[in-house]
């Protein structure tokens, strides 16, 4: 069967393309911008790629078109699909119909930590010999891929609440039929499609409705928003994870690089690993509890974490130049920003932290989180912010102590002027941030060579 994917270069749709190819389908696709690394990954799989959305790419006529949720009416390719009555579906629906119905699905949902938790869980199952299939929102270093299809009964998926397609406004995760469901946390986000937290909670309620009776829902006992979702109805087994819960962690190191695992107040294992921060300890605890549900002993999970490497862009150390350390992180919500900085602070002590943020998400651009942004960045010694284009609110007013620029070049020039050996620079964005990481490194290298 020939499948053509519109919006193929997104992480999710690129993963769908890889899974479809693994099933033996002929796969092609297009996107508004086709560029590495996703384009390289897809071309290595033998997938034909087209730049843009002209109707000619649908010739010869594919058997099925899979349409990404970034596309809407008025798009030339979408209009051609409808006019020519070419069969079409969403990525989430295709995944359900062709793969997930025959798998034990372990789904990771929540506002924060989905990619990391799904990555940890995938690695635990792999190290335990269960050879899981997976689809996550980042490249897993252990697998050099964001998706893989195996002959295992287990499938790990990052289950986000964003809508499915222009013709299906349900959250993608309602298509995933999980038997093990992690609810990491729940806050208001995606202001471009959800009017308030209650609307997101309704989608999470729909997700709980499809977890079978023998399935298990893992959630933090102290998360009020999730407790309110569960109060709407839950028909499956449940276990609590985190503070005041059945599964708990006790830090052995302030930075979170070592901790004890407790199940119902009994120590069942210890973890020593490379990740930083209380939030990652929580992510690991969720993954350990989920793996335990499918039969992986806790000690096996703890040993797997000794060898675990985090996904790209999760407080990823890029390079050290002239004694200045540069990190890349995906954080874009105030809670994620705060936990990222807390993890780094616990690791580096009194060293100066310089936080560089691009408020790129639709929610941020609308100013939904402007009142909490200053407190989220409070652990940073220096704050450097990029004012979003066409934004109705002022970053300078929201975070008075910050340096605010309207161009990435301004930010780089300011950073070069203030940085000194020992500084820890963490760049946070859910996009490319105009390649600021490499541009800053280039400037710092040149300056260092000039002074040496």
From TrEMBL:
<keyword id="KW-0436">Ligase</keyword>
<dbReference type="GO" id="GO:0009254">
    <property type="term" value="P:peptidoglycan turnover"/>
</dbReference>
<feature type="domain" description="Mur ligase N-terminal catalytic">
    <location>
        <begin position="2"/>
        <end position="98"/>
    </location>
</feature>
<dbReference type="InterPro" id="IPR036565">
    <property type="entry name" value="Mur-like_cat_sf"/>
</dbReference>
<keyword id="KW-0547">Nucleotide-binding</keyword>
<dbReference type="GO" id="GO:0009252">
    <property type="term" value="P:peptidoglycan biosynthetic process"/>
</dbReference>
<comment type="pathway">
    <text>Cell wall biogenesis; peptidoglycan recycling.</text>
</comment>
<dbReference type="Pfam" id="PF08245">
    <property type="entry name" value="Mur_ligase_M"/>
</dbReference>
<dbReference type="GO" id="GO:0008360">
    <property type="term" value="P:regulation of cell shape"/>
</dbReference>
<dbReference type="GO" id="GO:0071555">
    <property type="term" value="P:cell wall organization"/>
</dbReference>
<keyword id="KW-0131">Cell cycle</keyword>
<dbReference type="InterPro" id="IPR004101">
    <property type="entry name" value="Mur_ligase_C"/>
</dbReference>
<dbReference type="InterPro" id="IPR036615">
    <property type="entry name" value="Mur_ligase_C_dom_sf"/>
</dbReference>
<protein>
    <recommendedName>
        <fullName>UDP-N-acetylmuramate--L-alanyl-gamma-D-glutamyl-meso-2,6-diaminoheptandioate ligase</fullName>
        <ecNumber>6.3.2.45</ecNumber>
    </recommendedName>
</protein>
<keyword id="KW-0132">Cell division</keyword>
<keyword id="KW-0961">Cell wall biogenesis/degradation</keyword>
<dbReference type="GO" id="GO:0051301">
    <property type="term" value="P:cell division"/>
</dbReference>
<dbReference type="InterPro" id="IPR050061">
    <property type="entry name" value="MurCDEF_pg_biosynth"/>
</dbReference>
<dbReference type="InterPro" id="IPR000713">
    <property type="entry name" value="Mur_ligase_N"/>
</dbReference>
<comment type="similarity">
    <text>Belongs to the MurCDEF family. Mpl subfamily.</text>
</comment>
<dbReference type="GO" id="GO:0106418">
    <property type="term" value="F:UDP-N-acetylmuramate-L-alanyl-gamma-D-glutamyl-meso-2,6-diaminoheptanedioate ligase activity"/>
</dbReference>
<dbReference type="GO" id="GO:0005524">
    <property type="term" value="F:ATP binding"/>
</dbReference>
<comment type="function">
    <text>Reutilizes the intact tripeptide L-alanyl-gamma-D-glutamyl-meso-diaminopimelate by linking it to UDP-N-acetylmuramate.</text>
</comment>
<dbReference type="InterPro" id="IPR013221">
    <property type="entry name" value="Mur_ligase_cen"/>
</dbReference>
<keyword id="KW-0067">ATP-binding</keyword>
<keyword id="KW-0573">Peptidoglycan synthesis</keyword>
<dbReference type="InterPro" id="IPR005757">
    <property type="entry name" value="Mpl"/>
</dbReference>
<keyword id="KW-0133">Cell shape</keyword>
<keyword id="KW-0460">Magnesium</keyword>
<feature type="domain" description="Mur ligase central">
    <location>
        <begin position="108"/>
        <end position="291"/>
    </location>
</feature>
<dbReference type="Pfam" id="PF02875">
    <property type="entry name" value="Mur_ligase_C"/>
</dbReference>
<dbReference type="Pfam" id="PF01225">
    <property type="entry name" value="Mur_ligase"/>
</dbReference>
<feature type="binding site">
    <location>
        <begin position="110"/>
        <end position="116"/>
    </location>
    <ligand>
        <name>ATP</name>
    </ligand>
</feature>
<feature type="domain" description="Mur ligase C-terminal">
    <location>
        <begin position="313"/>
        <end position="431"/>
    </location>
</feature>
């Amino acid at each position: 069967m020939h499948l053509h994917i519109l919006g193929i270069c997104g992480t999710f749709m690129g993963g769908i393309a890889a899974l479809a190819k693994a099933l033996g389908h002929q796969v092609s696709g297009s996107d508004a911008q086709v560029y590495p690394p996703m384009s390289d990954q897809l071309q290595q799989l033998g997938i034909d790629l087209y730049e843009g959305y002209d109707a000619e790419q649908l010739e010869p006529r594919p058997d099925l078109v899979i349409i990404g949720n970034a596309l809407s009416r008025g798009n030339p390719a979408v209009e051609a699909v409808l006019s020519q009555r070419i069969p079409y579906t969403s990525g989430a629906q295709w995944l359900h119909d062709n793969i997930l119905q025959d798998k034990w699905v372990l789904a990771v949902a929540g506002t924060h930590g989905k990619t990391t938790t799904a990555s940890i869980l995938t690695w635990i199952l792999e190290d335990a010999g269960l050879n899981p299939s997976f689809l996550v929102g980042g490249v897993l270093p252990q697998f050099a891929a964001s998706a893989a299809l195996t002959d295992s009964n287990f499938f790990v998926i990052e289950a986000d609440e964003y809508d499915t397609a222009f013709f299906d406004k349900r959250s993608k995760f309602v298509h995933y039929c999980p038997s093990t469901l992690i609810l990491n946390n729940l806050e208001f986000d995606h202001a471009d499609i959800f009017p308030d937290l209650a609307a997101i909670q309704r989608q999470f309620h729909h997700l709980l409705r499809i977890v079978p009776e023998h399935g298990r829902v893992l959630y933090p006992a102290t998360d009020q928003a999730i407790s309110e979702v569960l109060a709407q109805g839950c028909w499956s087994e449940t276990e609590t994870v985190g503070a005041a819960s059945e599964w708990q962690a006790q830090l052995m190191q302030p930075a979170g690089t070592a901790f004890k695992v407790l199940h119902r107040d009994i120590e069942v294992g210890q973890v020593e690993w490379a990740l930083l921060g209380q939030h990652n300890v929580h992510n690991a605890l969720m993954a350990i509890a989920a793996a335990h549900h499918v039969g992986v002993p806790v000690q096996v999970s703890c040993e797997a974490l000794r060898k675990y490497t985090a996904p790209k862009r999760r407080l990823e150390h890029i390079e050290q130049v002239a004694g200045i350390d540069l990190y890349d992180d995906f954080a874009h919500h105030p809670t994620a920003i705060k936990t990222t900085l807390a993890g780094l602070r616990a690791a580096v002590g009194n060293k100066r932290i310089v936080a560089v943020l691009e408020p790129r998400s639709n929610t941020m651009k609308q100013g939904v989180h402007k009142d909490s942004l200053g407190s989220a960045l409070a652990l940073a010694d220096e704050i450097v912010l990029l004012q979003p284009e066409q934004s109705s609110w002022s970053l300078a007013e929201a975070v008075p102590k910050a340096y605010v620029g309207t161009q990435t070049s301004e930010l780089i020039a300011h950073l070069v002027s203030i940085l000194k050996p020992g500084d820890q620079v963490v760049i946070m964005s859910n996009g490319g941030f105009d390649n600021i990481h490499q541009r800053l490194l280039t400037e710092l290298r040149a300056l260092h060579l000039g002074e040496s």
